[in-house]
Write a structure and sequence with these properties.
The chain is α+β, with helices and mostly antiparallel strands. Helices cover 35% and strands 14% of the residues.
């Protein structure tokens, strides 16, 4: 009996020690994540978007689900353009701003190393002709609008988009830009935001990653049929070696990945705000389904794609210049940056910032079949390829890093031919070829907020006549 009691006591002690270790590990992971999220969010909000810091604190870092952030504090260094956050001095993280690259968390690298990496990296995009109309310039001409617009309905739809019918479930629409026949016909901004404010796109960034892949396909540097994509996938019997670039673009890689935003320890949360290399977090995951047989929406795959793109450049500085030189500059997207992780790889799943007008420029490139001002920027069939439904997606709602349906709306679509860039907190760019229409809506609608893409953008869509020549 005595020996049994000793054994039970030892077992209970061991279990208590394991529980304590697990608890400390959870606290450690949560603290580093909270410090990283606060530092990155404040750095980008203040130094990329140019916002008032109190506004960022009050809106981005509070509210349901963000209560733990009350335990964290941040120091903003305006001179050095960096932010350090911690919980009472413990587990600090620093995010540093660099021109042309936005903010990066200094994880595994020092701030001086990150600054040296970005020194003399970019040639500024020349200012636009002040007389040029958007998208060639920034002037908006509202005097020559098409007659097939119901202006009263358009105004009413925009008013409704900014209204707060249920303050207990706020919408927080911050920007709305409407483009018809290639020209801005309406736009509005909430107080504190404007035409030049860069907004985070979250998962809308994935479609920018799609465009970057298209550029490299046009260069002949990659093909969507390529497999054996990463050196660490080439071991004998490694199922990851069979994954193709097409399967990554279509979210059918078969790799495990936890996209749960409600967990501090989920893959996506740790990848974005707690790890040196976002792509490596995803690339190290095991294969849990045969590649090409199962659809699983995974932000990790977008960052694997960025790893693949990066490895295609001999000079890593050329990779860091690539989005700016080959995508943003040709389109006149002067506000746009994709933020890299500390390893120097773009976080192509989530962290692109651009003004509402510049998000509309990216959409217009797709609406014009990859042609910009008469020049082919993307492969001739790239947009068609991107909009081809992925058979493994449950409702054929996904193409190649482009949404074909609205998965969380009351209705699945705004029009039969519409397609979308969609992002966390209800970001959307809707492209509707049959009405020659693009709508950009940016905001901060948290879970439970009173916003539905199909319901709330439909009045704006109905203000425009359908094109009779559309298929």
């Amino acid at each position: 009996m005595f020996s049994l009691r000793k054994a039970l006591l030892f077992l209970l002690t061991l279990l208590a020690a394991v529980a304590a270790a697990i608890g400390l590990h959870w606290v450690h992971l949560t603290a580093l994540l909270g410090s990283g999220f606060m530092a990155e969010t404040l750095c980008s909000g203040v130094f990329v978007s140019g916002r008032d810091r109190q506004s960022v604190f009050a809106e981005e870092l509070t509210g349901p689900g963000y209560e733990l952030l009350q335990l964290f504090q941040a120091k903003i260094d305006d001179q050095q353009k960096q932010v350090t956050a911690s919980t009472y001095g413990l587990w600090p993280r620093t995010a540093v701003y660099r021109d042309g690259l936005g903010c990066t968390l200094a994880i595994g690298r020092t701030v001086p190393e990150l600054r040296a990496e970005a020194a003399n990296l970019f040639t500024p995009i020349p200012p636009p002709d002040p007389n040029a109309v958007w998208p060639e310039g920034e002037r908006v001409d509202l005097e020559t609008l098409s007659n097939d617009i119901d202006h009263a309905a358009l105004t009413a739809g925009i008013d409704a988009s900014f209204a707060e019918p249920n303050p207990a479930h706020p919408r927080r629409t911050r920007a709305l830009v409407v483009v018809h026949k290639g020209r801005i016909v309406a736009e509005r901004y909430a107080p504190g935001f404007g035409q030049t404010t860069p907004f985070v796109g979250w998962s809308m960034t994935k479609t920018a990653t799609n465009a970057l892949v298209g550029l490299r396909v046009l260069d002949g540097a990659v093909a969507t049929s390529n497999d054996k994509l990463l050196s660490e996938w080439l071991g004998e019997g490694d199922a990851r070696g069979a994954i193709t670039l097409n399967q990554l673009l279509r979210m059918t890689s078969g790799l495990a990945f936890d996209e749960g935003y409600g967990s501090n320890t989920s893959d996506v949360a740790q990848m974005l705000f707690a790890k040196e290399s976002a792509g490596r977090v995803a690339a190290e995951k095991p294969v849990v389904a045969s590649p090409g047989t199962h659809w699983n929406y995974s932000s990790g795959t977008s960052n694997i794609i960025q790893l693949i793109l990066r490895h295609g450049f001999t000079d890593e500085r050329d990779y860091l210049r690539f989005p700016h030189d080959r995508l943003f500059a040709p389109l006149g997207m002067r506000s746009a940056v994709i933020e890299p992780d500390a390893s120097g790889t773009f976080i192509g799943s989530s962290l692109m910032y651009a003004s509402a007008r510049d998000w509309a420029r990216l959409a217009l490139l797709f609406a014009q079949n990859g042609v910009w001002q008469g020049k082919l920027l993307l492969p001739p069939d790239w947009v068609t390829y991107s909009l081809t439904p992925t058979p493994e997606a449950p409702a054929k709602e996904y193409g190649a890093h482009v949404w074909l349906k609205l998965p969380e709306s009351e209705q699945s679509t705004l029009a039969v031919d519409a397609y979308y860039l969609l992002g966390f907190d209800q970001q959307i760019v809707a492209i509707i070829p049959s009405r020659d229409l693009i709508i950009v809506r940016l905001g901060l609608t948290r879970k439970g907020g009173d916003w539905d893409h199909a319901r709330d953008l439909a009045p704006i869509v109905r203000a425009f006549s359908a094109e009779t020549t559309a298929p």
